[in-house]
């Protein structure tokens, strides 16, 4: 028999609350350093693009937001599957908190894409395959949030959203592929996204920094919101009251000293 | 008491649903009326220019048929949920897959199929070229069945909620997108005189996928809705 203790630990909100508390600074500090550092590097020190001038610099926010937003959906769907299969409460909480974060990132990538599109393509919006796919992803996130809010019963809300998230995850490849196909049918690929062409290493390095920074910040946010969710759900339990009440005098003592 | 086999239960549910739909009338007539009225709105909004309408007709017909199908889906499990039939189905020793399949098939026969049959008429009033009409009917036949399957997932998730209607459209419409893309593209290809069979084949593939997977999601969603 394999030892499953490591796995069962994840079923305990108490263990997760303590564990994630220790993990928080390890995500927040490098995440902020990488993201802010990458932005400063990309905005001030990278030479301007041959064709696009300075407008390409929005890539340092746009690409990480889009990439993490897509990864976040698959992460949410995985949490949904874990919740449905092993009835893990923690997975339901993670699933619930990922949806608004993912929707915000999708929205951010759409807005930065529009801002980038205006000087580059001369228009705020192009019915391009990728833009359309991200817009649909945004709608999928909003659908999950709307479904979650419609339920009064928390357990039923989590399970219903889990089913929808999994159905969405099965559909996402089909949607992407159909939108890609739809785009190639209607328009010749005259506008090439910068990502398609080769990108110069001097531009790529800050992008890698902001991209990894964004992943870390995403993890940090998920942990923060999940901890808030744990506090909300377990507020009547003894361990949480003990922990929160004993933490506070220690904090104030430090501040007093 | 004689125990019924799976196929007997399948036929029994199909017959019961078809009979109640035919007797109430509104169940199959309302989506048709919606389809006709909304298609009438488009020339009024866009203008009566025949060439412009002909260009837009495949897209309009497909979008409106999709909306009509979605409207009809809301009532798919509603009455069975309200009177407790759904609970009995879930408690019965029968596997849920064939039961759900029978419900969806009955729903498609009373909402999707009439839409397909009426679409040539609306294609004519929207000035669509005749060469596209047969493909329109075939693409709607396959496509509306897929829409019924996807819609059933949304209906099962929202059946226990008081204000399910608008929510259903929010969660289901993004999932309808591939069907819309391939369906309207097949009609446009037929009008342009290029090959349309590959596009119809892709719709067929989506249909197969929906038949295989959607009833499982529907059964899971119904269990959640009844349990809460």
Walkthrough of the structure:
Chain A: InterPro entries: Cyt_c_assembly (IPR002541), Cyt_c_biogenesis_CcmC (IPR003557), Cyt_c_biogenesis_CcsA/CcmC (IPR045062). Chain A: It is found in: Cell inner membrane; Membrane. Chain A: It comes from Spongiibacter thalassae. Chain A: Its main location: membrane. Chain A: It holds the Pfam family Cytochrom_C_asm. The complex is a heterodimer of chains A (257) and B (228). With 257 residues, chain A is mainly α. Chain A has one domain. Helices cover 80% and strands 0% of the residues of chain A. In chain A, helix 4 packs parallel to helix 6. Chain A is globular. Mean pLDDT of chain A is 85; it is low at 249-257. With 228 residues, chain B is an all-alpha fold. Chain B has one domain. Chain B is 84% helix and 0% strand. Chain B has nine helices and no strands. In chain B, helix 3 (50-73) runs antiparallel to helix 8. The two termini of chain B are 32 Å apart. The A-B interface holds A 84, 136, 139-140, 142-144, 146-147, 150-151, 153, 155-156, 159-160, 163-164, 166-168, 170-171, 174-175, 177-179, 181-182, 185 and B 153, 157-158, 160-161, 163-164, 167, 170-171, 173-175, 177-178, 181-182, 185, 206, 209, 213, 217, 220-221, 224-225, 227-228.
Shape of chain A: globular
Low-pLDDT runs of chain B: none
Number of helices of chain B: 9
Structural class of chain A comes to mainly alpha
Tell me the series of helices and strands of chain B, N- to C-terminal: HHHHHHHHH
Total beta strand runs of chain B: 0
Largest sheet of chain A: none
Pfam family, one (chain A): Cytochrom_C_asm
Transmembrane segments (chain A): 23-46, 58-85, 97-117, 129-148, 160-179, 207-226
Subcellular location (chain A): Cell inner membrane; Membrane
Keywords (chain A): Cell inner membrane, Cell membrane, Cytochrome c-type biogenesis, Membrane, Transmembrane, Transmembrane helix, Transport
């Amino acid at each position: 028999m394999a030892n499953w203790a490591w796995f069962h630990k994840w079923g305990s909100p108490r263990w997760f609350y303590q564990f994630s508390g220790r993990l928080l600074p390890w995500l927040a500090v490098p995440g902020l350093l990488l993201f802010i550092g990458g932005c400063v590097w990309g905005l001030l020190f990278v030479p301007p693009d041959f064709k696009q001038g300075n407008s390409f610099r929005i890539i340092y926010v746009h690409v990480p937001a889009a990439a993490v937003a897509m990864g976040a959906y698959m992460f949410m769907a995985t949490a949904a599957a874990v919740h449905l299969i092993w009835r893990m409460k923690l997975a339901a909480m993670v699933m619930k908190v990922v949806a608004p974060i993912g929707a915000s990132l999708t929205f951010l990538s759409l807005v930065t894409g529009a801002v980038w599109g205006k000087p580059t393509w001369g228009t705020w919006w192009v019915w391009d395959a990728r833009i359309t796919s991200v817009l649909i992803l945004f709608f999928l996130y909003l659908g999950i949030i709307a479904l979650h809010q419609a339920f009064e019963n928390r357990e039923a809300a989590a399970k219903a959203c889990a089913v929808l998230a999994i159905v969405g995850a099965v559909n996402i490849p089909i949607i992407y592929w159909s939108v890609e196909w739809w785009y190639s049918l209607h328009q010749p690929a005259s506008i090439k996204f910068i990502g398609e062409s080769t990108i110069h290493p001097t531009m790529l390095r800050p992008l890698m920094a902001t991209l990894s920074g964004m992943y870390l910040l995403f993890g940090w946010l998920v942990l923060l919101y999940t901890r808030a969710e744990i506090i909300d759900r377990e507020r009547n339990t003894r361990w949480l009251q003990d922990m929160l009440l004993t933490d506070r005098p220690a904090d104030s003592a430090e501040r007093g000293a | 008491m004689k125990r019924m086999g799976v196929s007997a239960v399948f036929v029994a549910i199909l017959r019961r649903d078809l009979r109640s739909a035919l007797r109430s009338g509104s169940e199959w007539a309302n989506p048709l009326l919606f389809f006709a009225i909304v298609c009438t709105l488009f020339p009024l909004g866009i203008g009566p220019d025949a060439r412009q309408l002909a260009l837009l007709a495949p897209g309009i017909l497909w979008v409106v048929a999709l909306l009509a199908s979605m409207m009809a889906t809301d009532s798919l499990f509603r009455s069975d949920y309200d009177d407790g039939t759904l609970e009995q189905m879930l408690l019965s020793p029968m596997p849920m897959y064939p039961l759900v399949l029978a419900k969806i098939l009955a729903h498609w026969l009373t909402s999707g199929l009439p839409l397909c049959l009426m679409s040539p008429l609306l294609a004519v009033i929207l000035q669509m070229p005749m060469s596209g009409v047969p493909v329109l009917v075939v693409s709607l036949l396959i496509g509306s069945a897929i829409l019924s399957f996807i819609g059933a997932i949304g209906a099962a998730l929202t059946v226990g909620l008081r204000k399910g209607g608008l929510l259903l459209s929010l969660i289901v419409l993004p999932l309808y997108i591939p069907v819309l893309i391939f369906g309207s593209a097949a009609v446009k290809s037929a009008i342009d005189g290029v090959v349309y069979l590959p596009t119809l084949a892709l719709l067929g593939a989506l249909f197969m996928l929906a038949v295989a997977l959607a009833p499982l999601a529907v059964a899971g969603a119904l269990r959640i809705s009844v349990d809460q």
